[in-house]
Amino acid sequence: MSRGLSAVAAIVVPLLVLAVLALVWVGRDVAEPEVGVPAGPVGTALAELPVAPAGTMTGYSRSAFGPAWADVDDNGCSTREDVLARDLTGIVVADDGCRVLSGTLADPYGAGTVDFVRGVDTSAAVQIDHVVALAAAWRTGARDWDAERRERFANDPLELLAVAGAENQAKGDDDAAEWLPVEGACAYAARQVAVKSEWGLWVTPDERDALAAVLTGCPGQELPRR
């Protein structure tokens, strides 16, 4: 090898090695889990979710997901009433066949039993939680959707649960890495995975590890369906 080629090789080869090492390191930061995914359908679905850092919140507003509780299934009742009717027991329904006037909630997040009575001062005792918070969905893919898709997401029964109002307020816009319920974490984590899988949302590395950590302690946990 000539002296000139040797000099070039002495510069290029180390640079190539450093580039490869840098790619490996970046890949480890994003792709390699700190916690192994569990076996079973939920673990498989979690392993198949794309992993990426959270995106920007630029442009986010609740209105980006359409009017609250639209009647997207055209059954004549708002989504809120549909979820209350599904998740509460012993319900009393108004003459219009839609408005739930009262019922009992077994809170899936650990707040015990909540008596729901419709009224200005009482309705907030039971609220409808977007399992994957709308802001969390925005920063993991929904920002790129059109308005119609976002509205369908915000009213998807798979994405919604009736919960104690205090629990819903405590959760806010947090993702699974930032908030988990006191009870029912296995079912909550599985529903997070189901929603993200159904709608093609990604998870952040921290979300993936948090979900995997929960689900490894839930052998036999089923993947929720609509």
UniProtKB/TrEMBL annotation:
Entry keyword set: Endonuclease, Hydrolase, Nuclease
Gene Ontology MF terms: endonuclease activity
Keyword Nuclease set for record: yes
GmrSD restriction endonucleases C-terminal domain ranges (all copies): 80-213
Keyword Hydrolase: yes
InterPro entries in UniProt: GmrSD_C (IPR011089)
Pfam families cross-referenced by the UniProt entry: GmrSD_C (PF07510)
Name of the featured protein: HNH endonuclease family protein
Organism ancestry: Bacteria, Bacillati, Actinomycetota, Actinomycetes, Kineosporiales
